[in-house]
Amino acid sequence: MARWQTVNVLLTSASGRRLWQLSPNGNNFTVQGEKTVLINEGLPATVVGKDWHTLFRKKLNIAWLPADRVFLRVVHLPASEAGEIEQMIELQLEKLSPLPVGQMVWSFYLMPRPLEKPDALQTVIVIIAARSSVEEFLGQLETEGYLADRLEAPGLDQLLAANMHEEGVWVFPNGENEPILIAWWYGGAVQNLTLVSLPTGEERGPQMKAQIEQIAWAGELEGWLTSAPKIHLVAAPEEVRFWEPFFKNSGEQLQLHPPATEPQLASLSARRCAETSSKTNLLPRDFSTRYHQQFVDGLWMRGLLAVLSTYIIGVLIYFGALYVLKMKYNKVKSELASISGSYTNALKDGEELRILLDRQELKYKALDCWRAVATNMPDSITLEHMYFRRGKLELRGSAVSEEADQVGKFNEDLRHITNPNRPDQMLFSDVAPPSMNTHGASTEWGFSCDLKEAESE
Fold first, then answer.
1. Span 366-456: which CATH code?
2. In what order do the strands lie in the sheet with 122-130?
3. d(CA 39, CA 11)
């Protein structure tokens, strides 16, 4: 029973519809809510409808077929498995049913067998209804959004709730406009079961008496009626006030029994239908298949609708964010355009300032180079040309051939000259070896030096 988290039971009568919502409580079902709905009023979709939550919280929708559309029959068969009993009933349907076999739907219920009689026959209650009536009733429920999982006969639960154990005829009046259920209990089993529709007014009593007499005669002929029938009236106080005088005036034995309330019957019906072995469902198989397909299609459509809605919302959010960013971009662009002139002027001023600073620095670098050359150049060589450009010093000169080695010494000394502004660094990062051309007694020489600071700039 834990398979079902919610069970809905719907009762349809001439005055309207009554819906009970039940939840499992141990081995039973407890009524959690009750709602009365007019015939033309829709049922609450949040209660009876099914959505994706139903995949995790199973919901069972039960509808009671009106009693005036149901036929009940009793048959006694050898004890066997449910499948074999179903085949036995099929062989007797033409005899049991007041309707042609091709125009009806049917189900059955196996009554509990008495423990003291293990060899007794199996009592089976056969439930029969016209297929046209079932389809019409289901069509009405579909228009109100109620897709039934099971279609049940409420008279069966009335019979089981009475807990019959005394021999006699058990009468279950359900109101002036509803059929009366009559059950004959003899020999520890139900021998006959009938739903009797009676007219309103004074004729109800005589016609009830005639029905009981006819069934009693049939029981005598069949051999199961072994004593004068005792009347067991299972009725509410207002029904008792009508029927009690009639049965007492007829001189018959009468015993009163309190009936089960409609919520109690709903709980019993939910418990019985929740059992996987229950065979009392009158819902045609094609309706059950179509309802399941509608449920699956509904899940797909809701899923696609949710995906489409999420996509549309995402697109709207994207375009909204794009619009906001575009507004910010245009604002920044306008601000940039307003300051572009001053920004260009600032760049120009900065560049001019940098040029002035470079010129000032180059003057000091040129002086440092001149000082290094003047300090370290030997007297025996002559400097004829000194060219200074950004980051590079080129020296050209001549010397007497016998003093040409002084050029090499001069070149080596320049390699180790430190920067006067930064004693931890050399003035030149690289001093190229001198190139020397000898022409008789005179030698021409030249080499270049790379300033250390040139790399950092």
1. 3.30.1360.100
2. 70-77, 122-130, 104-110
3. 11
